[in-house]
Amino acid sequence: MTVAEGDRLERCFEEQRPRLRAVAYRMLGSAAEADDAVQDAWLRVSRADTGAVENAGAWLTTVVARVCLNQLRSREQRRETPLDVHVPDPIVSPETGLDPEHEALLADSVGLALLVVLETLTPAERLSFVLHDMFAVPFDEIAPMLERSSAAVRQLASRARRRVRGQATTPDPDVGRQRDVVDAFFAASRRGDFEALVAVLHPDVVLRSDGGATRPRMTMVLHGADAVARQAFTSSRLSPYVRPALVNGAAGVVVVAGERPLFVMAFTVAGGLVVAVDVLADPDRLHGLDLPPLQG
């Protein structure tokens, strides 16, 4: 590769970086791991022969996807037992709005609830769904990555799509209305008003909490308005520490004691009701998050 070719490749890679990070975040559910995957991809790309590459953007997407696929497969091999629930690393922003970097990463409303469902897919299903349904990569371009036929990849994406449609709800588009519902949730919890709390919860609401290895008692999945409302009452003493935030672009909160984050709570609000609450309660992972200053 000549110096001029190398310069062109680097410019192209930087132009594509936002898209590549977005692919990697959807594949891995972690902004930090997504950045590592993109950097790994650049190391591979910078040493490759690019003479036969016709569509640089598509080729770079393929390279990043392969890196992510390897990481997902490695996770599966290291994991001795299936996780009861795994809440991916959230992207937390102030209520004032997303910065441009987060906007690119979270385009197409990639809520935390959707990422939780993606965690339940096999690596092959996740790759097929993410690349085809989210980034419009043709099945015949995905097939070589998985060493399967285009028809088989189509089936993988279809199976993943059914899982996503069955478990992940698209949130209401108006973040202000989402915030009204979330505020009503915490107001009812503070007052001890069980009926008012149940009234803002969908009858089939699901709460998923990931406490990690440090707080296993905080790892749980609860179904139904009554169960979620009772759990909210047990946590009502934390109300003074609730800080409104955007969590993956939707209304959510960070519970902060002093300078220490205790929980990040993502709410999925649809039809004016809370349909899902996803809680990251793992102290180790909370400590590693890049949290912005939040107003009380």
Query: Could you say what the CATH topology of the largest domain is called?
Result: Butyryl-CoA Dehydrogenase, subunit A, domain 3
Structural class: alpha+beta
Please mark out the parts with pLDDT under 50 across 5 or more consecutive residues, or reply none: none
**How far apart are the first and last residues' alpha carbons, in Å?**
54 Å
* Largest sheet descriptor: 7 strands, mixed
Rg calculated over all Cα atoms: 20 Å
Query: If classified by CATH, what would the architecture of the largest domain be?
Result: Up-down Bundle
Q: How much strand content do the residues show?
A: 15-25%
Strand order of the largest sheet: 1-4-5-6-7-2-3
- Helix-strand string: HHHEHHHHHHHEEHEEEEH
CATH homology-level superfamily of the largest domain: PhyR, sigma-like (SL) domain
The total of beta strands comes to 7
Number of domains: 2
Assign a percent range to the helix content: 40-55%
Q: Average pLDDT value? A: 88
Quick tags:
single chain; 296 residues; alpha+beta; Butyryl-CoA Dehydrogenase, subunit A, domain 3; 2 domains
Descriptive account of the structure:
The chain contains twelve helices and seven strands. The protein has 296 residues and is α+β, with helices and mostly antiparallel strands. The protein has two domains: 3-83 and 114-167, Butyryl-CoA Dehydrogenase, subunit A, domain 3; 175-287, Nuclear Transport Factor 2, Chain: A (Roll), CATH 3.10.450.50. The protein has a seven-stranded mixed sheet with strand order 1-4-5-6-7-2-3, sandwiched between helices. The mean pLDDT is 88.
